[in-house]
Amino acid sequence: MTVGPGIQLKGEISNCAALVVEGNIDATLDGEALEISQRGVFKGTARVESAEIQGSFEGDLSVSGLLRIENGGSVSGKVLYGRIEVVAGGELSGEINKSGAEDAPAKRANSVEIAVEAD
Asked: What is the pTM of this model?
């Protein structure tokens, strides 16, 4: 599903194979893949297998596989990931945890609050 430029969408999205955000979304997403374009904005909660962020994500993001933040992309909030790549120019801030780290108190050292700005 593609949410095009200038479109605003609010609500709940489930069983979505791939969501491409070129407009503005304020929603809860349960799907396989999330792609936010350069001008796209997603606010809310998303649980996906993979995510590529070129625009802006704000909220709770859980990615079981690869989270990739591109140059100009911004992710802020509570983030849970399997693997992560932040390209030079990408930004990441908030509570960041690797999958499984939140399950065991002994692993809490893997939980950090960071702000990354790569030039």
From this structure: 0.83
Split into its structural domains, the chain has a count of: 1
Rounded average pLDDT per 10-residue block, the chain, 119 residues: 94 94 97 97 97 98 97 97 95 92 44 49
The pLDDT value given to residue 5: 94
Q: 43: closest CA among 30, 56, 62?
A: 56
Q: 10 Å Cβ neighbour count for 100?
A: 11
- Contact residues for 102 (Cβ-Cβ < 8 A; gap 6+): 80, 111
CA 29 to chain centre: 11
Q: Kind and range of the H or E element at 64?
A: strand 56-69
92: containing domain: 2-117
Q: What are phi and psi of 72, to 5 degrees?
A: 90, -10
Torsion of CA 3, 8, 14, 20, to 10 degrees: 20
Residues paired with 89 in a beta bridge = none
